[in-house]
Prior knowledge:
This protein is of the alpha/beta class. It contains 13 helices and twelve strands. The protein has a domain of 236 residues: 3-Layer(aba) Sandwich (Rossmann fold). The chain is globular and about 55 Å long. The relative contact order is 0.13. The model has no long low-confidence stretch (mean pLDDT 97). Nicotinamide-adenine-dinucleotide binds next to helix 1, helix 4, strand 5 and strand 7.
Amino acid sequence: MKILVTGGAGFIGSNFIRYILALGRKYTVVNYDKLTYAGNLANLEQVSAHPNYGFVKGDICDASLLESAMRGCDAVVHFAAESHVDRSIYEPSPVIRTNITGTFTILEVARKLSIPRFVHISTDEVYGDISPNEFADERSPLQPSSPYSASKAGADLLVRSYVRTYDFPAVITRSSNNYGPYQFPEKFVPLMITNAMSNQVFPVYGDGKQQRDWLHVEDNCGGILAVLEKGKIGEVYNIGGLDLEENLTLARRILQLTGKPESLLTYVRDRPGHDRRYALNCEKIKDELGWKPLISLDDGLRQTIDWYENSGPWLAGVRCGEYLTYYEKYYLNREQSLHAIASAGPTTSE
Ligand code: NAD
Ligand code: TYD
């Protein structure tokens, strides 16, 4: 099976490529990625010379390049996205372009080429805030809160419209918060781990009592593979770690595991529109595809911390340049930057 993976140089995409090539069977992968700030070919160093792996640098909004990369593929797994909620608040334009227009472009190309199978990677954030004691299942309403989650909900609905209207052979996954090796340190877990390593503060948004369902990336890769191989066309599958944790508790656990003091915890101005709680019901993928998460949050965190502590040149290669500018603007000068966003007009980029 020849698979076009979009966004394969990012965190989950690169883990997925390494995961399926390590199975040592039947898969050939073409990684199609624009290499934005979040795309990093160093994530794929282990497989870059693998005979079943190829790379095309390209934008998912570029229909003709996409068509030449996708021609002859048996399946598409579509990860490529602008994936960070905070950045989507600071600068929504690239998020809307990639996540909505990019997904539309891929759908059109895949439809034109009659690609037999399409896995769309959506997110639990499309369900929005989930009330205490409730869990979103695949039929729960989509009530996104941020430009990121709204763009992902738009893409998710577009995919579903193609299934219904054109008999397009798509399946959708909605996973919870992933963590694990090779995650860009703008997200909570790698940011806290790498800050701990350099004795920097742990910036906790608001009161830190927001809850997330944490899923080790390798468990997500197993779920996506199950959906690719056995998922029913037109269906949506939630994929969660079933390890619900408050941000503050998770931050304290990372401090404990890295041997750093509680005094590093620092409460900072909250993210605008911050969702309090994500919680998934994952009975469907368990019952229908026989998948369940295998890595506990505690084991996964230990393994992830160990990976970052030994990631030497990889970490030096991402914690530099654009990342430091971003960090300075939205962490070291957070008050001024968020105040400017709250009081200014729209931002544009491209
Ligand atoms: P990431 O930010 O680490 O990687 C995104 C990748 O997409 C990068 O390699 C980037 O270069 C590429 N990309 C961005 N814009 C592109 C464009 N226009 N054309 C081609 N490539 C482009 O993201 P991630 O955390 O690996 O997330 C992957 C997918 O999983 C996304 O669709 C995201 O919405 C979804 N998801 C992520 C999480 C999570 O916890 N990280 C949870 C649920 C769902
Ligand atoms: P994040 O990793 O950005 O994922 P998402 O917002 O998509 O769930 O954030 C996870 C949680 O951690 C979320 O409630 C926001 C919070 N958070 C902080 O408290 N401080 C930080 O520096 C970051 C990046 C996130």
